[in-house]
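Hi support team,

I submitted a single chain yesterday and got back a structure, but I'm not sure I'm reading the token output correctly. Could someone confirm the output below corresponds to the sequence I sent? I've pasted both exactly as they appear in my results page.

Thanks,
R.
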Amino acid sequence: MSKYYKLQIKLMFLEVVEVSKFMYDVITVGSNTVDVFAKTDSELIEIKTRASTEELLAYPLGTKILISGLEFMIGGGGTNTAVAFSRLGFKTAYLGKIGQDENGLKVFKLLKDENIDFIGTLGKIGGYSVILDSIEDDRTILTFKGCNDDLTFEEIKKSHLNAKWLYFASMTGKSFKMLKKLTDYAKKNNIKIAFNASSYLAKRGYSYIKKIVESSDVFILNLEEAQILAGKGSAKDLLKRLYNSNMQYLVITDGQNGAYCTDGKNNYFIKPKKHLKIKETTGAGDAFASTFVAGIIRKKNIKDCLRMAAINAESVISNYGAKNILLSNRKLKLDRRPVKSF
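Hi R., thanks for writing in. Yes, this is the structure output for that exact sequence:
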């Protein structure tokens, strides 16, 4: 690891480590990565069994694959959502572990450019993702977690945790244990929690994430994750199975099929915009979830929260990069698309 990068990052860390002596609207907790978007002419194949159908990307074995384009961007659920909140006008901090390498410098620069305070700590090697595009505008992601998995609760300066909301993106390893302790801290200090799960966590079973789920004011996940946790069924069925009385809202997203939401008494459904040209879907879930929570923080009615979330997610999937075209408060213009009650 280059001594130059270590020195530069430590200097930048010292610049920001004392900034958080006031109240944040929201602190996002999650990963940071450098995302490499590789455009290839991969084949899409379908595997069918009696019980399921699965689509896979296919590459010939033992050959060189030409890449028609490469793009490098900053990703990770923690920084994606921090940028979303900051652009929407919230005083935002990011809590995570940044690597002391060239990629770490890029993450620091992003946070500085987006007016986001860093209240985490430093690790060795940062996270890295390779996003392989398919011929049908979906993708497969190869992810190296790096030091994102190594953040402990003991490393966090509790004096920096002055916030109205904590937004939890998915974290694994030691960092998931940190999330559980941070959940206890939030409840003791009257900080609200939004939790966006992932397939990584869902596959560990409901009991594994129960503590965080049942302490969350807003719980957001996609249909696949909901089915892993609660069994096969429609989004409507899964809303009933996964909602608990501690939640303010439960949201289940289903990609191009729309999103479902419940407050325990009333249920809502929103469809995405018709004929939307999709370029790349990475970051759409982060955009939807964080923007929905932003609406809740602003005390918008639930239908407008869903409209805001859909509009920002659609902006992301219409462009490359998880946060390039995340909308500012000024640019996020609400339309009057229908939100159905059921």
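A quick pointer for reading it: The two ends are 56 Å apart (CA to CA). Let us know if anything else looks off.

Best,
Support desk
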